[in-house]
Amino acid sequence: MKTGLGTRQFYKLFFIFFILTGFIMNSFFVLQATAQSVQIDTFIEVTICGNGIVEANEECDEGDGNNTGGYSTTIAGRQCNPDCTWAPYCGDTIVQTLHNEECDDGNNEEDDFCTADCKDKAVVGPSGPTGSGDNSPGSSVPPGTTTVRLIGKAYPHSNVNILQDGVVIGIVAADAGANFTFTTSGVEPGVTTFGIWAEDRLGLRSIALTVTFEVIAGSTTTVSGVFLPPTLDISDNEVAQGDIVQFSGTTVPEVNVETQINSQHTIIEETTSTEEGAWQLDFDTSPLEQGLHTAKAKFETEQSGSTSESTFSQAISFAVGTAALGELTADLNVDGFVNLIDFSILLFHWQTDGGTTDPPADINQDGIVGLPDFSIMLFQWTG
Amino acid sequence: MHKRSIAIALLLFFITGGNFASAASLYLDPESTTFSTKDTFTVKIRLNNESECVNAAQVIMSYPREKVKAIDTSRADSIFTLWPEEPEINNEAGEITFAGGIPGGYCGRVPGDPGLTNNLLTVIFQPHTSITDEEESVALSITEDSSVYLHDGRGTKANLTTFGAEPRVDKNKVEGTGQWFEMVRQDTTPPQPFTIEVVKNPGVFGGKYYIVFSAVDKESGIDHYEVYEKELDDDFLARLLWFDRAKEFWQNIASPYVIKDQSLNSIIMVKAIDKAGNERIVSYTPPEYLREPSNIENYLLIAAGVLLLILAGLGLKFRPQIMKAFKNNPNE
Fold first, then answer.
1. Exposed site from A123, A200, A258, B101, fewest CB < 10 Å?
2. Residue B213: its chain A contacts at CB < 8 A?
3. Taking the alpha carbons of B298, B304, B309, B310 in that order, is the dihedral positive or negative?
């Protein structure tokens, strides 16, 4: 009589052990994956005016070719503009003097102080003649025009640079709340990449946030949720362990700014931006081991009851108890911009050691000008 | 031994859940379909960025040269706008190579985007007429030497997975779609407007003036560029004295290009031509303060100098005769 395990029983037990381990580990990874999928950095959304679906930032959408935008004497008969806002109508609470309205009480009822067709009576409606300003910047867009509108947040009173396929096509000013809207018409239909970057009041630049999508002919495509990450600066990029290092920058006013410091364990610190959008974080470097570290920041804001986040800023590096790394620069002609001219210099030195140019065309100093240098240049691209 | 290998593989599979970390993948579209031997077919090289933003890639695609040949490539709906290495077809080796990038990076498809929007390059193939089998599969692949770079500012290579495709060519399939030629035929839109920049950098092209430009064509894609340097000083004398008439012809070029007229006395015209032959011409007139005195003035000065020297030489040579002539005429 055998008292120990037989070979077959051993394999059976071993197999069961595999299965159990597998299930446990799989569950762990699935949970982790689920947790990661909940954490959405930013939610940039494309909506197309003209597809017949009323999407975010649209008031109406009657479908391709039907958003003609004529005046209507009734609420029921109101028409949609080419930019998916309602065209003027009797009942929109705005006295449309261009269409001979004498009053507008927001309905088409006859028995109140304004007639069903917005005539008669001395009492006028509650607001001026043109409606709601920049919320409908494309209301003058004629039908059939291919239009793209970008809506987002940058920095208060900053100039926001808009790039189309790597080339600057416009600069728009953000308001005090850091909101900006940019509309461009006559865009060629097809796959298009828009890049957005801004410079804050301190001269710090954001990364270029890019959105690639297909522009549909004759439609207004609205891209909402274009949130530029906070700008990020550091007081000193070489500190002793235990020193206080100060991270600062600019972002949207009165939002939560999360700074992520990469160490052996990632450290997350939070602060709030001021009314002017300035933010600052004093960080004690005691928990950091000696060596090189990076930090990056993003903001969170409440919108319509849900939390929206920006993407992370570019990472800034600093050294604790050791020498800091030199910054890599792709501005090869030192004109303050990274664009086609820098690209031409890179191409001149392509697949060579880069010569002795200053700053070096071999941006990462690995001995050859190649794709890694090109990648760094694209990261720093300003157009 | 075999059992142990299976056990280790099983253990690895269960521990990772079959999900090996991969930051990007390149794949071919369509993965499988059937084409007529009498027709061309197109294959798109697409990028899936997965969880990371990426900004550059170098791709080597291989195909069986004995079955098909690549006849063209199109960048029409590519997300790349800059090309350090233009697409190059090598039908002898059965390879297509290119390197490109997207300023600001590509972070994936945006919710609501009606397009797939992840194409890098479209390749147009033509099956060889020598295919004998009724139906033959064509194994297309992206080689392991291909690379994709993360948009992290450090030039980091992404962990890359590649997926090939295996379309079939059918001798009996009569109806060809002809989609590529049809698309080119329908393209009547010229490339988009672009700008020319004149640059001079001590470390580049020996400090000579050169031009940079980049155009986009959304329909059939840019085919090539041409340049023409037209002299500003175009009067009769200039025509008479201007010897380098070859400059008046359009020449095929690529950006960056060292201009011939380094004195900047010429209008620089660049023509972008798409696959359908539609053209967009843009020009750059150098500002006055950058121009050097024109060559014509130099030629005139040289000619005047030479004339003076000849006259002086003649004077010296015939000095006795001249002196004699003066002496023989006492009235003067």
1. A123
2. 340
3. positive
Residue A186: is its pLDDT beyond 80? no
Element (DSSP H or E) covering residue B279: strand B279-284
Look at strands A147-153 and A220-227 and give their pairing.
Answer: parallel
Q: How many CB atoms lie within 10 A of CB B59?
A: 23
| Contact residues, chain A, for B117 at CB < 8 Å | 191, 212-214
Judging contacts by C-beta atoms under 8 Å, the chain A residues touching residue B270 are none
**Beta-carbon separation of B256 and A347 below 8 A:** yes
Q: Do A22 and B115 touch (CB under 8 A)?
A: no
**From the candidates A23, A29, A43, A344, which should be mutated to test the interface with B, based on the most B CB atoms within 10 A?**
A344
Distance CA A247, CA B18 (A): 40
Q: What is the DSSP letter of B289?
A: G
pLDDT surpassing 60 at residue A34? no
Contact A371 B147 (CB under 8 A): yes
DSSP annotation string for A358-383: SS-SSTT-SSS-SHHHHHHHHHT---
Residues of A in contact with B188 (CB under 8 A): none
Angle, vertex CA A26, rays to CA A23 and CA A28, nearest 5 = 110
Collect all residues of chain B within an 8 Å Cβ-Cβ radius of residue A315. Answer: 152-153
Residue A115, CA distances (Å) to A75, A91, A123, A288 in order? 13, 10, 11, 73
What is Dmax (Cα atoms) for chain B?
Answer: 130
Interface probe with B: pick from A39, A213, A378, most Cβ of B within 10 Å? A378
Interface test with A, best of B74, B216, B253 (most A CBs within 10 A): B216
| pLDDT at B297 > cutoff 70 | no
Residues of B in contact with A350 (CB under 8 A): 84
Q: Round to whole Å and give the CA distance between A342 and B199.
A: 10
B84 contacts B100 by C-beta, under 8 angstroms = yes
Question: Do A279 and A233 contact (CB within 8 A), yes or no?
Answer: no
- What are the E-state strand segments in chain A? 45-49, 147-153, 159-164, 167-173, 179-185, 190-199, 209-215, 220-227, 233-234, 238-239, 244-250, 256-262, 267-272, 278-284, 291-303, 306-309, 316-320
For residue A2, pLDDT beyond 60: no
The H-assigned helical ranges of chain A are 7-38, 340-348, 371-379
Two tokens at A308? Answer: 């929206």
Query: Which residues on chain B are in Cβ contact (under 8 Å) with A167?
Result: 194-195, 214
Kindly report the pTM of this predicted structure: 0.71
pLDDT of residue B203: 85
The ipTM assigned to this model is: 0.74
B186 in A contact zone (CB under 8 Å): no
d(CA B86, CA B88): 6
Tokens 């000849």 -> residue: B310
Task: Give the integer Cα–Cα distance in Å for B243 and B245.
Answer: 6
Widest CA span of chain A, in angstroms?
110
Assess B197–A contact: CB distance below 8 Å, yes or no: yes
Q: What is the mean pLDDT of chain B?
A: 83
pLDDT-based confidence at residue B243 (cuts at 50, 70, 90): low
Contact B77 A190 (CB under 8 A): yes
pLDDT at A354 over 80: yes
* Distance in angstroms (rounded) separating the CA atoms of residues A129 and A100: 12
Q: Do B11 and A21 touch (CB under 8 A)?
A: yes
